[in-house]
Design a protein that fits this description.
The complex is a heterodimer of chains A (94) and B (289).
Chain A: E1 6-9, H1 22-25, H2 27-31, E2 37-41, E3 55-59, H3 70-74, E4 80-83, H4 88-91
Antiparallel strand pairs in A: 1-4, 2-3
Chain B: H1 3-8, H2 23-28, H3 31-40, H4 58-63, H5 65-79, E1 96-98, H6 101-111, E2 116-120, H7 122-128, E3 133-138, H8 140-146, E4 159-160, H9 162-175, E5 178-183, E6 189-195, H10 201-209, E7 214-215, E8 219-223, E9 243-246, E10 251-254, E11 274-278
Parallel strand pairs in B: 1-7
Antiparallel strand pairs in B: 1-5, 2-3, 2-4, 3-6, 5-6, 8-11, 9-10
Classes of the chains: A alpha+beta (94), B alpha+beta (289).
């Protein structure tokens, strides 16, 4: 049975207007070697990309996470929780 | 030559066909409208649901026996789509291929429609958080991107003439970025990217999930073992982990199954030991894109 990696971001801590704006911060994106995170505008209605309120960071490529926990350490808001599981490479037998 | 060459090459490689760069062709396929919609919110591509699935945890979903096969069929079908009413926000018909610097420069010098611009790589911005103005776009796409100021590099001349575009590709390729050419949508060609793995959306799907969103190049690297002095300089250039140094024989070996034929490793070789050869000339690799 595959144990999936779970990465949760607490958006009450990571949001525009918090002490660190995610679009200015970007520390988790920079530190993640397999580039698991994605910074994007939300999908609601027709988002206006010039509105900073609609930008957020999500963990997308969960199966590429190797569980190094560097994002957890680097996040100034302590907004990231990682429960490491099996990466795609591990599942494929590496 | 791959199937795109047979369909759209008119006797040569698809990306060498001048017809596919023309404004008239773009109009025929309503490319302007498509690109307008696609680039409005390009960064939302991977979180959009496609038939109930978005890309979150895609690797796990692809491992599921039936669902995995379904996702492969749907994603590859979309990227390769030539149907009418293609959905721009899903990047239907946004297919690309890796190509060596010479071919990319030939396109910029002779084929690309003006205006030519350079803009921030969307992939690198949304996945790594860095602004890197390395994407060369041309034709109707330039005019669309110019409207979206967040993609336009600040404080530099971003409209390029042909010579400047050729020079930009040279510098980016020498840095280690892989040149790739894109339909947007098939068969209109309007972009040459300088990609980096793992941030590149296309290479991500190809390398990590083996989805044929990007084809390997028309070439492969050939190591002249008499000339290789084992300096290992080329190894650090490869984005695809195709090159490795063997201490026992004091030379570099290549894994042709991983080689994309981008030719970027050649910039590091001081001994003229690395050369591109046509993919078709290697029996085990011919036709495998």
């Amino acid at each position: 049975m595959t144990k999936k990696t779970s990465i949760k971001l607490d958006y009450s801590k990571c949001h525009t207007g918090a002490s660190t704006d995610p679009r200015e911060c970007r520390k988790c994106l920079f530190v993640c070697d397999p580039a698991v995170f994605l910074m994007h505008p939300t999908l609601e209605k027709h988002p206006d990309p010039h509105n900073p309120e609609i930008w957020r960071v999500d963990a997308i490529w969960l199966s590429k996470c190797t569980g190094c926990m560097k994002c957890v350490e680097v996040c100034p808001e302590k907004a990231i929780t990682v429960k490491p599981g099996d990466s795609l490479a591990i599942i494929r037998g590496f | 030559m791959c199937e795109w060459c047979f369909k759209h090459g008119d006797g040569g490689k698809w990306y060498n066909n001048a017809r596919l760069y023309r404004n008239e062709l773009a109009d025929e396929y309503n490319a302007g409208e498509y690109l307008e919609e696609q680039w409005k919110n390009m960064e939302t591509l991977f979180i959009r649901k496609i038939m109930g699935f978005n890309s979150i945890g895609l690797g796990y979903k692809m491992q599921m026996p039936i669902i995995g096969r379904l996702i492969r069929k749907v994603v590859e079908g979309q990227i390769h789509s030539e149907k009418e009413n293609r959905n721009p926000v899903r990047a239907d018909g946004h297919f690309g291929q890796v190509l060596p610097l010479e071919d990319a420069q030939h396109i910029m010098g002779n084929l690309a429609a003006e205006p030519i611009i350079k803009n921030y790589c969307v992939c690198r911005w949304m996945q790594r958080g860095v602004k890197d103005a390395v994407c060369i776009n041309f034709g109707q796409l330039s005019e669309v991107i110019e409207k979206h100021t967040r993609y336009i590099p600040e404080g530099v001349k971003y409209r390029l003439d042909r010579e400047e575009a050729i020079q930009a590709l040279q510098e980016q390729n020498e840095k280690g970025y892989v040149a790739s050419v894109w339909f947007q949508p098939v068969p209109y060609i309007n972009a040459i990217c300088s990609c980096e793995s793992p941030e590149c959306g296309g290479l991500r799907l190809r390398n990590d999930f083996n989805l044929k969103t990007v084809y390997k190049g028309e070439y492969l690297i050939d190591i002249d073992i008499d000339k290789c002095e084992g300096c290992k300089s080329c190894v650090r250039m490869c984005q695809f982990n195709a090159l490795r140094y063997l201490p026992s024989v004091k030379r570099v070996i290549v894994d042709l199954d991983k080689c994309f034929g981008c030719g970027v490793c050649r910039h590091a070789c001081k001994h003229d030991a690395l050369n591109l050869v046509p993919r078709e000339s290697i029996p085990g690799q011919a036709g495998k894109y």
